[in-house]
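Re: the multi-chain job from yesterday

Posting the exact lines I submitted so nobody has to dig through the queue logs.
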Amino acid sequence: MGILRLAHVDVRTPDLELSTAYYTEVLGLQLAGRGPAGEDTVYLKCWDEEDHHSVRLRYDPRTGLDLFSFRVEKEDDLAELEIAVQKYGCQVQRISKGEAVGQGESIRFGIPSGQTMELVWDLEKTGNLLGKLNPAPVPPPGLPGIAPPRLDHMLINAEEVGESAAFFSKVLGFRMTEQVLDANGHQMGVWLERSHSPHDIAIVNGPNGALHHFAFWLDDWDQVRKAADILAYNGVQIDQGPTRHGVTRGNTIYFFDPLGIRNEVFTGGYRADPDFPAITWTEDQFGRGLFYYENVISQRFLSFHT
Amino acid sequence: MSDRILRLQHVEVRVPDLELCTAYYTEVVGLVETAHEEGRVFLKCWDEHEHHSVVLRQAPTYGLDHMSFKVAEREDLDYYTERIENTGITVKRHARGELGPGWGEAIRFEAPSGHLVELVYGMEKVGNMLPLTNPPPRPAGLVGIAPPRLDHIFIMAEDVDGATAFFRDVLEFRLTEQIMANDGHQLATWLERSHTPHDIAIVTGPNGALHHFAFWLDDWNGVREAADLLAYNGVTIDVAPTRHGVTRGYTVYFFDPVGNRNEVFTGGYWVDPDFEPITWTEEEMGRAMFYYAGQVNERFFTVHS
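And the result, structure tokens for all chains:
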């Protein structure tokens, strides 16, 4: 019951055609459609996703995050969470069916760290690339690019990580799996889940409203290595990796889309039950927490965002 | 509201040679012994927090004693007791610790397929083998395959349709995949609660039988390394590393020293609660089970415990 998983991330790009080319040919997402006249948007999805889209690109002179959307498990959850969010003091905007492409009714609100969050249940099912009758376990050979099966998680910035984390856990029912504490006991970073994975969203110290990255799932470390080959071949700027996180235990590469939005491909982790005991990282071990092999805190990684 | 049944918590299997099986499960599979008592040994995988996920019980025969699923809240035990009793099945309640060391509060009942099923709440937490502060991604000194956790169980039933209906309608499992016979009945079904392709699967066979239970590995390379370890130790490999059509998972099947089938498994996909089930036709059953070979060896369908 409640929130299920990350559904889609909506970002702005000053060069819609360049970004579309990158996300379809290098990252290897499927083009799910273009928005109605006057919207200047492109809808994208991963090959194994059954819903209409998981990434929306919108033309805007400034790069950045429009909103991020989580799917709730049951239709009733929307009304319950709306009350909880309003009680906290957020202004809630109701989006009716037909107002947003590929989905029905949703609610949108500003979270304490300034980003716009959406909750939705009714996603238009367009099916994955395999179908439901005797499906091959793999998509048709020859999909371009990295071709991840699905969107996995995102990381946002917040000036007050503790306040933001409390909002996600107390109001939205997220569960904290890991945290980084500074020497004074303040949260510098938190990892939160609903999907029994190490994280569906993470929050690290930084400017309010900022997007740090969004991440796609890959099936294993060998796929992460292949992704690095494809990124390097295409001249994509790699930020970190391939390497391993201490936090989440995942294997990862960070890289930038052509307009500076950070992407990640991610695999690994562990199963988190609702009674999972949260893991704590101390500030002096933050380097290992972020990048277990390098054990250094990359300034670019912490300070660069969109 | 509760998440209800979360996942497979443990299996208890009968073994005619407890010492030999304990050696196999700890040294070859690489589980960790957490307790033993007269006639029973309690084991867990390194990344599991609960007291045990495999219990070996000395018995004259091999096979499944029971399977146990973890529920999120204590009230879930009452909730399911009522649902199960409404179908006319007797439910027995057990207090915390009554069933053995580390055990939570539990209910037990017999599924229509003749299997003893348990739902458990509040297992004793003994922690995984990592600290909760600045943990490394894996502990040092693991032996054997050392899977991080138990993953799923595969049982047999004479009436797969009926057994599946019980798990779906009463226990609220969700169907992800099915193999349909040409006459329209289910030959095999895969069911989940954990948003993975399966927590339990049911295939046509004798009631009460165990086909296998499976441990999770992180990737295909782990599956290959597991096969190396199994072969090195002289373990009988049933199906060498390959891929399933159903679940899309990577797999090795093998037998413990007394004939219970084990599996190591990785891969799969994320499942939403409204996932539309996948159907395999009887003609495609070979590829459904083993995607590369496209056929199923006779032993795989006929040997069970």
